[in-house]
Backbone:
């Protein structure tokens, strides 16, 4: 069951309640360089990103938002730290959302000023707590408890001003701390959540941490928008985010390929066949397949192969040098392994 929340809107994207779980990323460009920032945002959109966050580290970065907005269609969230006045400039420039950190923007007068400005422009605010920049405290409580406490204290500022267009994030680099913080917060409020595990690193380790942390929460119905944090090209964050959502059956972006891990029974070069097929299929170019979201099974032996191939929309179960092609649960043609990729692609394009 999906956690029941309020719903907010960032530009044309709804977050929370019954809205699809959306995918976010963050540019790693100098926001003042409008050209390169716009190019990266467009690349993110092409990959399937739906909301983009940009760093606003000075007044020039905030002012640049107006020109950036004129050149892109994706909702933009301004990442604000330390100086609340930068948020005011970003709001004036037409940003779609403000991210505030309770660890460095916390004076009641400043928060009140920002709430008034966001109310006027009907802009939501993300309360973004990070384990690395928590408000100063002498408490020896677990990090997850400190994160939740920081959010609850901060929310009071907003609710006192009758401002409820809020989403919350509670990110740590430790997976269990992150999961624990979100679980605790989930029973304490009705605001939508932005999920993520921060500073996961680079490569497979980072992908695994993100998949476990984000996936565990989403599987419990917790989470309304996600950002996979990777050290590298932010476009990769979008692809991983899509894989997480598709694996959980929450969104469908492209055809799904399932294949067996191979074992001593396999009598064809299944690894080569699967790699060639995925390259030909160009999964990443088949985003948002409108009416043909197919499951394609490529199986290496007679034990589980025929069953898996039957259950898929299109499948092939191999024996010695050849395989039996299935479509919609029925076997209908024997093909040689050397022709498998071509024949599968042909069936998909029918």
Residues:
């Amino acid at each position: 069951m999906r956690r029941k929340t309020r719903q907010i809107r960032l530009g044309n994207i709804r977050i929370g309640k019954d809205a699809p779980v959306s995918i976010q990323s963050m540019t790693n460009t100098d926001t003042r360089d409008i050209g390169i920032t716009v190019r990266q945002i467009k690349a993110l959109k092409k990959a399937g990103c739906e909301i983009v966050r940009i760093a606003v580290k000075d007044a020039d970065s905030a002012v640049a938002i107006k020109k950036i907005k004129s050149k892109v269609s994706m909702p933009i969230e301004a990442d604000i730290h330390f100086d609340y006045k930068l948020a005011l400039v970003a709001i004036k420039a037409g940003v779609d959302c403000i991210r505030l950190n309770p660890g460095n923007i916390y004076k009641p007068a400043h928060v009140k000023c920002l709430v008034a400005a966001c109310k006027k422009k009907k802009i939501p605010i993300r309360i973004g707590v990070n384990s690395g920049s928590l408000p100063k405290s002498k408490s020896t409580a677990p990090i997850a408890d400190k994160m939740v406490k920081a959010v609850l204290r901060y929310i009071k500022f907003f609710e006192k001003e009758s401002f409820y267009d809020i989403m919350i994030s509670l990110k740590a680099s430790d997976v269990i701390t992150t999961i624990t913080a979100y679980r605790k917060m989930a029973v304490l409020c009705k605001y939508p959540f932005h999920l993520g595990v921060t500073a996961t690193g680079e490569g497979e380790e980072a992908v695994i941490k993100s998949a476990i942390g984000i996936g565990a929460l989403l599987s419990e119905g917790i989470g309304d928008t996600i950002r996979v944090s990777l050290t590298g090209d932010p476009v990769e964050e979008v692809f991983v985010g899509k894989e997480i959502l598709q694996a959980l059956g929450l969104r469908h972006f492209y055809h799904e390929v399932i294949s067996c891990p191979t074992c001593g029974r396999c009598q064809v070069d299944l690894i080569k066949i699967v790699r060639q097929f995925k390259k030909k299929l160009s999964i990443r170019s088949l985003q948002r397949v409108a009416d043909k979201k197919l499951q394609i099974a490529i199986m290496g032996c007679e034990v589980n192969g025929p069953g898996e191939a039957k259950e898929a929309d299109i499948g092939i179960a191999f024996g010695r040098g050849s395989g039996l092609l299935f479509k919609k649960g029925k076997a209908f043609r024997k093909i040689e392994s050397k022709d498998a990729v071509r024949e599968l692609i042909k069936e998909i394009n029918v």
Q: What stands out?
A: The two ends are 37 Å apart (CA to CA). The longest strand covers residues 330-336. The chain is about 40% helix and 20% strand.
